[in-house]
Write a structure and sequence with these properties.
Layout (H helix, E strand, L loop, with lengths): L7 H50 L16 H12 L3 H12 L2 E6 L2 E6 L2 H10 L4 E2 L3 H9 L8 H11 L11 H13 L6 E3 H18 L12 H23 L3 H4 L3 H27 L12 H6 L5 H30 L3 H11 L9 H5 L2 H13 L5 E6 L3 E7 L5 E5 L4 E5 H5 L2 H4 L33 H18 E5 L8 E3 L3 E3 L4 E6 L3
Parallel strand pairs: 2-8
Antiparallel strand pairs: 1-2, 3-5, 4-12, 5-8, 6-7, 9-12, 10-11
Helix pairs in contact: 7-8, 7-19, 8-13, 9-11, 11-13, 13-16, 13-19, 14-16
């Protein structure tokens, strides 16, 4: 048998490998410990900075909403999901504020959230500390349709969108009443005399027609059932896109699977392609045609926007953003308005008496300004049924809310970077401390004396206040007055209370089932 021996060279090689392995182990261990040390220093410094800020601002801990599961907060999740499915999420949130105060905290798993309906806090979120917050990851869900439009961007990108759009919304007589009258007539023609009809579905089609006409100078014509094949495809694709965005918000992190659906992709593509056609025409027109207004008529919004930029994608993204807001929010307002009127014949008749001053003529801008009671009715509808009832922001840096800390909620609250802050306009508008003991009652006359600031926010507030506020109010007021001219009464056999259907906006889960009688003679 051959004897195995280890040469001196082999000994040296083995030794070097052992030393090298030891060095690598020491290096790896050092890196791990260095990483732990850096993380520890970061955590300690963050805690120290947070503690310093809390002391500086006199912050106290926010009151926590009571939970049965203090570790994971699963009871809160289960209750919220159940309330949403049962169409009572808004009422559930309102009840939480009644039991836990205007501002309270929630912990679910490792995440922390702060809920508030305190006007001072909402003012801080939306205005005085506006730069401390962002929209969060809204673009993940809405980006496939809206691209980099105003409703999904933050910071300088949002400021650019705002600066681009705002000049086109501050003009007098923003709404072309002559064009609006045409759409109202199409709407009125869809309502049978003395037979039940769902106004909510009609309002969604009406606002789509009116908004596409306002934006493109070309209506989707969904009420009359006319239009081209492309317009009908766009109307259906836009409806599907809105439903999909709502579903994705509900699905949370699982929404990625929804975005893989070929039908959804096709719907988004159809919407964007349809708008692109008008954008290309407007840009080409800008180069070849004198785009000054003629005959006192306002140009389509798109043509005016094309005067200020030729960025095709930017124009398209902003137009789709405005279309989304113009369709859903105004349809929500009109649906809630007529839900109430069908149950309040006294209010209906009082508006009719005021509208009688028009002597059967279509309202002019001057006439709209004189309709005090009709405007109060709309204000009261917006108070009780704000189209966007809840909203949220994410803190992009450590910040402070002025109230909500301590046992009575009188002290400031520290809001760490990354915290989710949610505010409910719906619950705030119904709080007795802000609107009196009759806060739940529909009473338009309260606006004779009520003067509101941050406690009344149907169109948001601060730098992100709704650009289309006057457009929506003008459209709703015009429709209300024209209906009172056309119909002598509105009734409903639906005795069920208003039930929420939460999508991007809120509407009635049961529709607006009414019977209307036309004026005779």
């Amino acid at each position: 048998m051959q004897k195995f021996t280890i040469s001196e060279d082999m000994e040296t090689t083995v030794f070097e490998k052992i030393v090298s392995l030891g060095r690598r182990s020491l290096t790896a261990g050092f890196v791990v410990w260095l990483g732990i040390a850096v993380l520890l220093v970061y955590v300690v410094s963050r805690h120290s900075a947070a503690r310093k800020a809390q002391i500086q601002h006199g912050c106290h801990p926010v009151r926590q909403h009571p939970r049965k599961d203090p570790i994971l907060g699963l009871d809160y999740v289960v209750e919220s999901v159940r309330a949403f499915r049962q169409h009572r999420f808004l009422a559930t949130l309102q009840h939480r504020h009644k039991t836990s105060g205007m501002t309270f905290g929630i912990r679910v798993f490792r995440s922390r959230g702060i809920f508030t309906i305190d006007p001072k806090n909402i003012q801080a979120i939306l205005s005085t500390r506006f730069k401390d917050y962002s929209l969060g990851n809204r673009s993940t869900v809405m980006g496939p349709l809206l691209g980099r439009g105003i409703f999904v961007t933050n910071g300088p990108e949002w400021a650019h969108s705002r600066a681009l759009l705002r000049p086109h919304f501050v003009k007098d007589r923003l709404v072309n009443l002559g064009s609006l009258e045409g759409h109202v007539r199409s709407l009125l023609a869809c309502i049978p005399d003395d037979r039940q009809v769902d106004l909510q579905e009609l309002f969604l089609r009406f606002t789509l027609d009116a908004t596409t006409d306002f934006l493109f100078g070309n209506s989707a014509d969904s009420l009359a059932g006319g239009g081209t094949e492309e317009e009908r495809e766009f109307s259906e694709a836009f409806r599907l896109a809105m439903d999909d965005i709502t579903l994705q918000f509900r699905m949370g992190p699982f929404s990625v699977f929804r975005r893989l659906d070929p039908k959804v992709k096709a719907a988004y593509r159809t919407c964007r392609t349809y708008v692109d056609i008008f954008v290309d025409k407007a840009i080409a027109k800008r180069e070849n045609v004198d785009m000054t207004e003629k005959g006192g008529e306002r140009e389509p919004f798109l043509d005016e926007l094309a005067k200020t930029t030729t960025d095709r994608e930017k124009i398209r993204d902003e137009l789709l953003s405005i279309l989304l807001a113009g369709r859903d929010t105004t349809a929500s307002l009109l649906s809630s308005l007529f839900h109430v009127l069908a149950r309040r014949p006294d209010v209906w008749q009082k508006v009719r008496r005021e509208a009688a001053g028009l002597k059967g003529n279509a309202p002019t801008y001057a006439a709209l300004q004189t309709m005090k009671y009709a405007k109060q009715v709309i204000n009261e509808v917006l108070r009780l049924y704000p189209p966007v009832p809840n909203n949220r922001r994410v803190a992009v840096r450590d910040t402070v809310l002025p109230r909500g800390g301590g046992p009575d909620g009188d002290f400031p609250v520290f809001v760490p970077k990354g915290s989710l802050v949610l505010y409910s306009v719906y619950a705030m508008h119904r709080h007795v401390d802000l609107f009196g003991q009759d806060a739940e009652e529909f009473r338009p006359e309260r606006w004779d004396t009520t003067r509101c600031s941050w406690e009344y926010l149907p169109f948001n507030g601060g730098p992100r206040i709704c650009l289309g506020q006057q457009y929506a109010l003008t459209e709703a007021l015009y429709v209300l007055l024209r209906f009172t001219q056309e119909f002598q009464s509105i009734e409903t056999q639906d005795t069920t209370p208003w039930t929420e259907s939460l999508t991007l906006t809120v509407c009635s889960a049961n529709g607006v089932q009414v019977t209307m009688q036309r004026v005779k003679g």
